[in-house]
Design goal:
Radius of gyration: 18 Å
Mean pLDDT: 94
Shape: globular
Low-confidence stretches: 5-9
Number of helices: 11
Largest sheet: none
Distance between the termini: 33 Å
Structural class: mainly alpha
Helix content: 55-70%
Number of strands: 0
Number of domains: 2
Length: 229
C-alpha cells in the first residue's frame, strides 16, 4: 500500500484545527471517549469481530472448498445488515445480486481474494471492483463506493477504509484536503482517501487512533449532518 506519509512537523492549518476542535467538542476525550465508542466505534467493531468469527481465513477457505458460495455471501450480508453503513437500496441490490448461484460464487470468491489475498492492496482492490461491477443487477446498481468498500472495512479495519462519498467530500473540503473523487470506484480515489486518513492520523496522534474505524469515524463527524458545525 503506497500511502503518502506526512511529516510529523507539518503544522496544523486553521482549517484542520477547526476540524479537530469540532471532533473534540462532541467527544472530549477523543477516540477513547465513551460517548464516541458508544455512538461510532463499538457497532463497527462488533461487526468486525463477527466477521472474524464467522468468516475467518480458515473457515472461509473451508467453505470455498466445499463450494458453499451462497452460505458465504449470506453470512457476509447478515453481518453488514447489523450496521448502518449501507443505504437500504445498496443492501437490496447486493441481496438481489447474490440470489443466483453465479452471483454468490463471484461475490464469495472475489471477496476472499480482496480480504485474504496475497497481491498488493491496489491489485486486490481493482480486482474486487471488477467483480462487483459484473454482479447480476435487477434494478439498482451494485457498483457503489459504499458497497465496494464496506466488507473490507468490516473484515480488516487495519487495512481497509470505508468510503461514504457525500460525507467524505464535505469533510475533505472542511479539512482543505484535495480529494480526488470520481463516482466510479477506482484505485486513485481510494488511495487518495488513504492519504486523507493518514493526514488525520498524524493530526490526531495524541488521541491514539487505533485503525481505520477511528479515522473513518472522524471523517463522518466532519461531514455528516448528524454532527452540525
Amino acid at each position: 500500500m503506497k500511502v503518502k506519509l506526512f511529516s510529523k512537523r507539518d503544522p496544523l492549518t486553521q482549517a484542520r484545527k477547526r476540524c479537530l476542535k469540532k471532533f473534540l467538542y462532541y467527544f472530549k476525550k477523543g477516540f477513547e471517549d465513551q460517548k464516541y465508542i458508544d455512538w461510532e466505534r463499538q457497532y463497527k467493531l462488533d461487526a468486525h469481530f463477527q466477521f472474524q468469527q464467522d468468516l475467518d481465513v480458515d473457515t472461509y477457505t473451508s467453505l470455498l472448498q466445499q463450494k458453499k458460495f451462497e452460505e458465504i455471501a449470506l453470512k457476509a450480508v447478515k453481518i453488514e445488515s447489523k450496521t448502518n453503513l449501507l443505504f437500504s437500496f445498496e443492501k437490496m441490490a447486493l441481496r438481489d445480486a447474490i440470489k443466483t448461484g453465479e452471483g454468490a460464487k463471484a461475490f464469495a470468491t472475489g471477496l476472499f481474494q480482496y480480504i485474504y489475498g496475497k497481491d498488493s492492496l491496489q491489485e486486490r482492490f481493482e480486482n474486487f471492483v471488477e467483480v462487483v461491477s459484473h454482479l447480476p443487477r435487477k434494478q439498482t446498481r451494485v457498483l457503489t463506493w459504499p458497497l465496494v468498500t464496506v466488507f473490507g472495512f468490516i473484515a480488516n479495519p487495519s487495512e481497509h477504509i470505508f468510503l461514504k462519498p457525500r460525507v467524505t467530500k464535505i469533510a475533505a473540503e472542511k479539512y482543505q484536503f484535495d480529494f480526488n473523487y470520481h463516482s466510479r470506484p477506482n484505485w486513485n480515489t481510494y488511495n487518495n482517501l488513504l492519504e486523507f486518513a493518514e493526514l488525520i492520523r498524524q493530526d490526531t496522534i495524541e488521541y491514539k487512533p487505533a485503525d481505520y474505524i477511528d479515522l473513518q469515524s472522524f471523517i463522518w463527524v466532519m461531514g455528516s449532518e448528524e454532527y452540525p458545525d
